Amino acid sequence: RTAPKVQFIVFCSDAGTADSVAHALSDALGFAVDRHRPDSDSWLGFGDDPARPILVCDRRAEEGLNLQGGQKVVVHYDLPWNPNRIEQRLGRADRYGSGQAVRSLALCCDDDDLEVAWLRYLDEGLRVFDRSIASLQYLIEQTVKDLPELLLMEGVEGVFDLLKRHGGETGLIDREIRSIDSQDALDALGAPPSETLDALSDLDDEWREIDASITGWIQTTLQFERSQDPNASPAGPSPGAGEIFRYRYLTGSRHTLVPLEAFVDRCRPALDVSMRIPRSRDLFTTPYTYRRHSALSRQGRAAGARIMRYGDPLLTGLGEITQRDERGRSTAVWRHVLDSERGAGVDLFFRFDFIVETDVRPAATVLDLAGSLSSSSLTSLSRRGDMSLSPFIHTVWLDAEFEPVADETRLSVLSRPHVMEATDQGGRDFNLNPKRWNVLRDRKLALIEDWAEVCRHARKCAEERLRALPELNEGLHQAARRAQSMDAGRLGLLQARAARAGAEAAGDHRDLELERALSAELIKGVLTPRVSLDAVCAAFLSGDLDLAGALARA
Asked: Among 288, 345, 376, 519, which is least packed, fewest CB within 10 Å?
């Protein structure tokens, strides 16, 4: 008998054989032998009770079972024709690493030449019993595919020939492993530098700033409600400090400012439809947190909390909805000011908020021509563009002559928050809805004659002024140099792969040429960025009290 500290796991391919082996061992050894069955818990005492050191399994236990820890011996009652099944068996006993090697005992009939040959191939060729063969999947798949024909045509001699071709230092298996090791070394050259990981860590430390920025958008602007997740206690020093929470879509008198149908359609992966309030159409998101430590805490893991970051389905969906929402994008306001330099005169100004970002459309065309354009590849291009040139908003103010507004005092007046009611100083703002716009038309205000053409020309001039800014162009050249630096490492890695592969690997050479073309177009896209209009406002400044009264009555 063997000391109980050693545990034996016996694998058989079929259930009937496993039943017979379990009964035979129990009768021969004189103690209980556990038999694994997926629909029963009776075998779970294996390993806990010193008097139950043997577990017999069939093929159903080769995947998913976790038997790691302690000193294990895996007994292969038979040897499958697929080497991957051998590795799967061993993985059940050493799934997470026990600190000790998992030994194997393979039963083999000496008078069965085919079984002896196959065992030698597994042991001496693949060495499956003392190393992982996960990296040899392509070779193994081809071997398994060709094996039936090999056995039919050549029998035992075919297996021994397979061992000669694959085994040894000069065999196909060792050559493949050396090739993979070389590839891994090349891949290591392209691994993120420690500075990148440090930057990510620093960004995680700024979760409060991320929280504040997104809160202003989701809660203040879009009118979602945020509440602590009822299934998780606060993970921070106080509620709200890295808490685990849910966003709530409100459908009552206070209504979230996003169409319900669009919200469900665009943000479905982020919704928890199982959490509902009786007699309410309100919807809840899955649990979230802005603090990585909270997500990794015991409470966070139990709640399934997600980290709120760029790329999350909730942010992506709300971003898509916002981009399609025209509300607030085009506005006109009449600002009644008593200190207007022109008294009862009217001054017109335009405010243009432009989004500046890398133009990835030419690079997308390169992918399309190569037959590689997909939603994921387009997203990857956008991320690369964002890494080189972070998207930003630049505001351009123009006067009625389409010249930039440089006077700081005037800019201060234009930039003041919207005032709905008259102030003590007499100032007030009027949103120029259709009725109020007609008041201006009735007054024959010259500034709004041929209004559509005025707006088109102002839009054109504003973008021209933006693109001509020296500080903008200097920033674009810095971003282009940053892109070239990042692409140099990527291109160097692909060049090394192509050179190592030689003329045989046409795919590596195609990848290199494609990457060169993408890099060139992305750098062009940085230097000539895409400028899109996010919002525009026409602001009229006037001290005309009579006209202000007419607007108020309208």
From this structure: 376
